[in-house]
Amino acid sequence: MSHAEPDPNRPAVTGLILAGGEGRRMGGVDKGWVTWRDKPLIAWAIERLRPQVTQLLVSANRSLERYRALGYPVVSDAPGWRFAGPLAGIAAGLAAAPSEWVVTVPCDAPLLPRDLVARFLTAAHAAGAFAAMRDANRAGEELPPVFFAHDGARAHPVFLLLHRAHLPSLTAFLATNRRRIDAWYGTLPHSAVSFADEPDAFANCNDPESLAQLAATAR
To answer: Tens of pLDDT along 40-52?
Structure first.
């Protein structure tokens, strides 16, 4: 199920599309299947992310067979954290990912950057993150940063590059009943990756109004 040719100069990366929310601001519907420009939002996310990664997972808590029919593995929140927000989906994705590195995106950002993964990997390479994690069993290994997208005006914490080694920290954080993504990675080394030249790529469709606005204004 690989969609990108392996590059010896970069690690394998699993893409994780987060579609496991309750869609409260969208009237309780399964947001991944909301239509934008004649295609469901999940299809836009797959179209944008699939060429950038070596594997793809979908995080979902309902419409499971419908998501599986798209041809990608589907992971669901652990029973005690079902519908507990994006962090629960990220935890499930990290546990299931076939690669050490994972990029997360929401299902409701149909214009997500086509160079998202490349920019994340460039930032991680510059920070020495790949070299630091090459021997994952080394005693006293320091965790690499969590990398998050920033459009020059604000952070977009659902767009992340992180390592499977972050899973224990995330599991412990969820056990405290806290749910904010930036509150979690704020406890760890973390680094912003600039996308200031393409801020519109992070526009999302989390309610009917933003869906209509994006449809009217996006090129």
So the answer is: 999 999 999 999 9
